[in-house]
């Protein structure tokens, strides 16, 4: 098979990537691994790459972000190539559909509507346009279109937002806090009964209400938990490092010892972030 010069043209842009993908999937000369893949086997990689993009952004690792965005773009190209082979659609169809959607959803930029409106009004207009799109797809229910395979916390958040749009929502945070107390008591009751199925059910209910609290406070739960995961990792690694200077590991340390180091790390972080006053360094009497 003759080599397409496009593959080695570093200035060819997206067309070069599309040609590389076509070659990788060529049944006669392509890569055996790429040829064997299908939508289901590639989907987990797509999700993973999206999270790696989010991680690079959270760490402000801008050089890494370029590569991670490329990896995510390649996932779209991979799916589009498989779709074209199956006769479903092409990559250009994907681009056209997205472009059409963005133009339709921004009439205040690409149409005759005025841009002179608040962010809140733009959000309401956006939701109205999306509702009309769902109606066109015969998605009649308020919760239709919320993807089932979203991370559970994110899906809970989106489900609650959809329900709130049609009035199914607590009026203020105090009601949510009362519900958290109620669900915590039910979880404790299930624990006392040692009913594993009921325990999981009540734990899920408590998580769901916690997500609702975040929504009422303007906090996106997935982002908040990622932030806490990063904080826990950072602090625990500091505990491990300080134990190592003593010739120890967490496995051969007591909980009290690790707790003391954890508190020290936490205090130092708070002081460095201005949450605590600096340590006094006076010369004394």
How much helix is in the residues?
A: 55-70%
**What is the CATH class of the largest domain?**
Mainly Alpha
Question: What radius of gyration results from the CA coordinates?
Answer: 26 Å
Would you identify the regions where 5 or more consecutive residues have pLDDT less than 50? 281-285
Per DSSP E runs of 2 or more residues, the count of β-strands stands at 0
CATH topology of the largest domain: Helix Hairpins
**From N to C, what is the helix and strand string?**
HHHHHHHHHHHH
Note the beta-strand portion.
under 5%
Largest sheet: none
Distance between the termini: 87 Å
Find the structural class using helix and strand composition: mainly alpha
CATH superfamily of the largest domain: MazG-like
Catalytic activity: ATP + H2O = AMP + diphosphate + H(+)
InterPro entries: MazG-like_dom, NTP-PPase_MazG-like_C, NTP-PPase_MazG-like_N, NTP_PyrPHydrolase_MazG
EC number: 3.6.1.8
Protein name: Nucleoside triphosphate pyrophosphohydrolase
Molecular structure report:
With 285 residues, this protein is mostly helical. The protein has twelve helices and no strands. 69% of the residues lie in helices and 0% in strands. The longest helix is centred in the last third of the chain and has 25 residues, at 221-245. It is globular and about 65 Å long. The model is unreliable at 281-285 (pLDDT under 50).
């Amino acid at each position: 098979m003759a080599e397409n010069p496009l593959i080695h043209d570093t200035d060819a842009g997206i067309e070069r990537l599309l040609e590389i993908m076509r070659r990788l999937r060529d049944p006669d000369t392509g890569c055996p691994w790429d040829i064997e893949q299908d939508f289901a086997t590639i989907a987990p990689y797509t999700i993973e790459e999206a999270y790696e993009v989010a991680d690079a952004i959270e760490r402000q690792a801008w050089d890494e972000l370029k590569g991670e965005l490329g990896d995510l773009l390649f996932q779209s190209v991979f799916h589009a190539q498989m779709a074209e082979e199956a006769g479903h659609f092409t990559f250009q169809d994907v681009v056209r559909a997205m472009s059409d959607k963005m133009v339709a959803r921004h009439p205040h930029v690409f149409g005759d509507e005025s841009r002179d409106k608040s962010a809140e009004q733009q959000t309401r207009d956006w939701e109205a346009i999306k509702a009309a799109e769902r109606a066109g797809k015969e998605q009649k229910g308020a919760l239709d279109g919320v993807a089932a395979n979203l991370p559970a916390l994110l899906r809970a958040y989106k489900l609650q937002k959809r329900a709130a749009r049609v009035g199914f929502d607590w009026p203020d945070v105090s009601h949510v806090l009362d519900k958290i107390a109620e669900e915590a008591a039910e979880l404790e009751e299930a624990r006392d009964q040692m009913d594993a199925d009921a325990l999981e059910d009540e734990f899920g209910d408590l998580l769901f209400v916690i997500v609702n609290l975040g929504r009422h406070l303007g906090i996106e739960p997935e982002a908040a938990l990622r932030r806490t995961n990063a904080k826990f990792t950072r602090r625990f690694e500091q505990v491990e490092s300080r134990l190592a200077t003593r010739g120890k590991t967490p496995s051969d340390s007591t909980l009290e010892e690790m707790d003391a180091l954890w508190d020290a790390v936490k205090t130092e972080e708070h002081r460095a972030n201005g949450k605590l006053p600096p340590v006094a360094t006076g010369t004394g009497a």
